[in-house]
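Q: A small favour: would you put together sequence and structure tokens for a protein?
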Amino acid sequence: QVQLVESGGGLVQAGGSLRLSCAASGRFFSINGMGWYRQAPGKQRELVATITSGGSTDYADDVKGRFTISRDNAKNTVYLQMNSLKPEDTAVYYCNAGVRRALHEYIYWGQGTQVTVSS
């Protein structure tokens, strides 16, 4: 079994910063793409940022220039550095990963971590 465990959420004032981490553990061959998504109350889950195994990144338009996704392949961990946070960034943040086991890739999700930005 594979587990993704997120950490780093919390309460921060507008303009502040937070760093989320998501570590993968279990039995697998490798991890392909990893990403961060978020879901605000009453809204659908949306993409925040993704990163390939080679380090190529992509961001949602409303976080470009404020958020940075990175990963440490040796630690099977993906990070999301969030700066200049806004109240509209308030959401539960989920990480996901494409994990290769044997000949197939499986998508796993973390349990989510709450980020609350006060005005």
